[in-house]
Amino acid sequence: MPAASLLPLFGSAPGPGTLGGPAGSGAGGGGRKAASPGAFRLTEKFVLLLVFSAFITLCFGAIFFLPDSSKLLSGVFFHSAALQPPPPPPGGQPRAPPQPGGGPAAAAAAGGAGSLERIRADHERALREAKETLQKLPEEIRRDIRQDKEKLLQDARDRKEAGAPGLPQRLFRQPVGAVGQEPADPDVRQRREKIKEMMKHAWDNYKRYAWGLNELKPISKQGHSSNLFGNIQGATIVDALDTLYIMEMKEEFKEAKEWVEKNLDFNVNAEISVFEVNIRFVGGLLSAYYLSGEEVFRKKAVELGEKLLPAFNTPTGIPWALLNIKSGIGRNWPWASGGSSILAEFGTLHLEFVHLSHLSGNPVFAEKVMNIRKVLNRLDKPEGLYPNYLNPSSGQWGQHHVSIGGLGDSFYEYLLKAWLMSDKTDEDGKKMYYDAVQAIEAHLIRKSGGGLTYIAEWKGGLLEHKMGHLTCFAGGMFALGADGAPNDKTGHHIELGAEIARTCHESYDRTRMKLGPEAFRFDGGVEAIATRQNEKYYILRPEVIETYMYMWRLTHDPKYRQWGWEAVEALEKHCRVDGGYSGIRDVYNNHESHDDVQQSFFLSETLKYLYLLFSEDDLLPFEHWVFNTEAHPLPILHKDDGNKEENQK
Ligand code: DMJ
């Protein structure tokens, strides 16, 4: 027993008139101090020891020697844990009846001579240690306490450095393209430098006013917290790690890493959005690991992945949208149709979870997301389309609303990218993606009177001729998937990507501030313009710039760099403020009304895609990396690198 645990017996301040004077006051001179409560005469010590051991013997005697004491022991100390019902199994399969004798608690509860022997031995050791402590000087006891404390701290430090316990050793090999060449063209180089300066402005202000909090309020110069992350902190830091790395902002990357090491804590009582925490935190940590090879990121990613697993404890295995990561209790958004989970949320876990299995050696993560695929493949789809709502208990669709923007978007993105990330071995993902695109083309994609291609929303068979800023990511997706398109449709998919890019550019160009609204419509005589006041805002979103980046890489048409630069100028003119970058309430207005939030995705996505747009193609090349939906790069699991099994999980 450490000396520290005996301290209350001897070290607490005595009440008035007991031993005369505060504990450890030092009065009394050298040798054994008569007046100090820690210094007893030998006879006093003996009496104390006798009383103490008589008391302990009495207590334990009552437990050991009363009739049926082993049952009492197991009932009091061990049984309550076993009474808690385990969470329901995923997939709704019947649970096997509990087996006797499983687990350490059950073994102890089974009692037996072994357990009693151990308890007796512990008891004797405690008495021995108490006796030894009694013979020590107060100063010696204090020294022991200090040493015990230091040892505990050192152990904790060692555990941190050694990485997560149970993680397999892994030889880190940096994937191709984690760093790239300087752009050859001086103008391009200069523009890229400007984007790096924007990152520095965003980061420095976050650091100055909101360090360690989730996001920054750049006007009021303080932290901003969103309930998407519960009380997990540091969203901007984790989201920005890989952008800092590829921009070679080494000092900033180092301070971000140190913050993660010391402060990123998932042992909190927090209800979080499984989707948001996955794409920003798990995705950010995975990318930071693959770029830098720093073990702390692998360890934290796996630790967080494990915390998310209880979200899958539903009858179908379709995860809850919200999860309390302490209690493991999940639920869905109260506004979601019929208690449903959301397509874009449960469909946007695949890439990160496959990598979690890859890095942890634990297949459970990949199994969870593969099961989502199975559930989806068993369901009938209206006109081949995927509704945005799916009930995790009944396994049935909720309202038949279909969208390639909010609530649906990244589900389609992850089908394509799962196939690409598997080095094109995930045939299931491939088929689901191209089948979905075919249905989207047939039922959702339309051309306006003015010749703009747009993607409408589908509500039970009726079209709403509205396109969200979020939907603009689809231009890049169509172009990225062009290469594998069936029936000689490669050119057609590239063309589709180009048309969506043009429409989204128009949605920017037709505003006063040259920044796109949250949603724009194609009805009542308008084209690519927001008509409702609550759709006129711009919150530093990346999707349009993301599409320019893909289109540039895949076509090298200079207009995409030109359009990207227009966005840089507009951001600088209307969103940059002293304290960072802010969203805008109405992009059609003459004067900026700032929303006072610097979203973490501005650093992880908007600025990263801009930087890549003005970089050479050798930085994070598409042959070796895919980007998660928060722009966090994840390496392709090449089959000739021994990833065959990983790809087939
Ligand atoms: C990001 O968090 C992700 O891109 C997500 O998929 C959708 N929306 C935001 C940015 O707009």
From TrEMBL:
Residues 84-115 are annotated as: Disordered. It is an enzyme of class 3 (hydrolase). Residues 84-101 have a biased composition (Pro residues). Coiled coil: none annotated. Its EC number is 3.2.1.-. GO terms for cellular component: endoplasmic reticulum; extracellular exosome; Golgi membrane. Ca(2+) binds at residue 629. Involved in the maturation of Asn-linked oligosaccharides. Progressively trim alpha-1,2-linked mannose residues from Man(9)GlcNAc(2) to produce Man(5)GlcNAc(2). The gene is MAN1A1. It catalyses: N(4)-(alpha-D-Man-(1->2)-alpha-D-Man-(1->2)-alpha-D-Man-(1->3)-[alpha-D-Man-(1->2)-alpha-D-Man-(1->3)-[alpha-D-Man-(1->2)-alpha-D-Man-(1->6)]-alpha-D-Man-(1->6)]-beta-D-Man-(1->4)-beta-D-GlcNAc-(1->4)-beta-D-GlcNAc)-L-asparaginyl-[protein] (N-glucan mannose isomer 9A1,2,3B1,2,3) + 4 H2O = N(4)-(alpha-D-Man-(1->3)-[alpha-D-Man-(1->3)-[alpha-D-Man-(1->6)]-alpha-D-Man-(1->6)]-beta-D-Man-(1->4)-beta-D-GlcNAc-(1->4)-beta-D-GlcNAc)-L-asparaginyl-[protein] (N-glucan mannose isomer 5A1,2) + 4 beta-D-mannose; N(4)-(alpha-D-Man-(1->2)-alpha-D-Man-(1->2)-alpha-D-Man-(1->3)-[alpha-D-Man-(1->3)-[alpha-D-Man-(1->2)-alpha-D-Man-(1->6)]-alpha-D-Man-(1->6)]-beta-D-Man-(1->4)-beta-D-GlcNAc-(1->4)-beta-D-GlcNAc)-L-asparaginyl-[protein] (N-glucan mannose isomer 8A1,2,3B1,3) + 3 H2O = N(4)-(alpha-D-Man-(1->3)-[alpha-D-Man-(1->3)-[alpha-D-Man-(1->6)]-alpha-D-Man-(1->6)]-beta-D-Man-(1->4)-beta-D-GlcNAc-(1->4)-beta-D-GlcNAc)-L-asparaginyl-[protein] (N-glucan mannose isomer 5A1,2) + 3 beta-D-mannose. One of its GO terms (molecular function) is mannosyl-oligosaccharide 1,2-alpha-mannosidase activity. This is alpha-1,2-Mannosidase. Keywords: Calcium, Disulfide bond, Glycosidase, Hydrolase, Membrane, Metal-binding, Signal-anchor, Transmembrane, Transmembrane helix. Its cofactor is Ca(2+). It is found in: Endomembrane system. Pathway: Protein modification; protein glycosylation. Pfam families: Glyco_hydro_47. The active site is at residues 276, 409, 518, 543. Signal peptide: none annotated. It is a single-pass type II membrane protein. The chain crosses the membrane at residues 46-66.
